[in-house]
């Protein structure tokens, strides 16, 4: 028997976030601080509702824009990285990796409960927040949710969640 599946996808310049980061890799390496003009794409799969909609595009765009705005023009720091130490000291955040140390204004950082600010984990982070909001505010759980994070042209990672 044939099966049908519908997908909606949003991606545009309003899902761009320009943020600072650095990642650790190979266990004992750490990038220099730099930034990207990241762009998110959000894709939902699921059945159609009685109005023949899977999910309203405008609502999906607005949620995506709000979530990416929370990262835009911030320094992104991973709080679960075993090699990067993060300490909030008054209005500052002290960040250290081995003998390197950075100090940022707390108000210019976003502390993310992830292990590394890779495109993969940023995708998962946004997907988890999106799923929460879809379920709590819109009583909607998609069959599949994908969040793609493009770090630079032609270079992206996708996180996929399935019901
Ligand atoms: Zn990078």
UniProtKB/TrEMBL annotation:
EC number(s) stated in the UniProt entry for this protein: 4.1.2.50
Statement: the UniProt record of this protein carries the keyword Amino-acid biosynthesis: no
Pathway(s) where this gene product acts: Purine metabolism; 7-cyano-7-deazaguanine biosynthesis
Species for this entry: Telmatocola sphagniphila
Similarity comment: Belongs to the PTPS family. QueD subfamily.
Alphabetical keyword list: Lyase, Metal-binding, Zinc
Name of this protein: 6-carboxy-5,6,7,8-tetrahydropterin synthase
Molecular-function GO terms, alphabetical: 6-carboxytetrahydropterin synthase activity; metal ion binding
InterPro entries, A to Z: 6-PTP_synth/QueD, 6-PTP_synth/QueD_sf
Cofactor requirements of the protein: Zn(2+)
Domain of life: Bacteria
Catalytic reactions of this protein: 7,8-dihydroneopterin 3'-triphosphate + H2O = 6-carboxy-5,6,7,8-tetrahydropterin + triphosphate + acetaldehyde + 2 H(+)
């Amino acid at each position: 028997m044939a099966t049908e599946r519908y997908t909606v996808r949003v991606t545009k310049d309003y899902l761009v976030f320009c943020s600072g980061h650095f990642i650790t890799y190979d266990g004992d390496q750490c990038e220099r601080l730099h930034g990207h003009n990241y762009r998110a794409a959000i894709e939902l799969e699921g059945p159609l509702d009685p109005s023949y909609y899977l999910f309203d595009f405008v609502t999906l765009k607005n949620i995506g824009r709000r979530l990416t705005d929370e990262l835009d023009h911030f320094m992104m720091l991973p709080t679960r990285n075993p090699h990067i130490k993060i300490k909030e000291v008054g209005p500052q955040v002290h960040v250290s990796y081995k003998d390197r140390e950075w100090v940022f204004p707390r108000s210019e950082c976003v502390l993310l409960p992830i292990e590394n600010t890779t495109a993969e984990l940023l995708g998962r982070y946004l997907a988890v927040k999106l799923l929460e909001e879809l379920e709590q505010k819109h009583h909607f759980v998609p069959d599949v949710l994908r969040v793609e994070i493009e770090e630079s042209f032609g270079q992206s990672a996708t996180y996929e969640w399935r019901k």
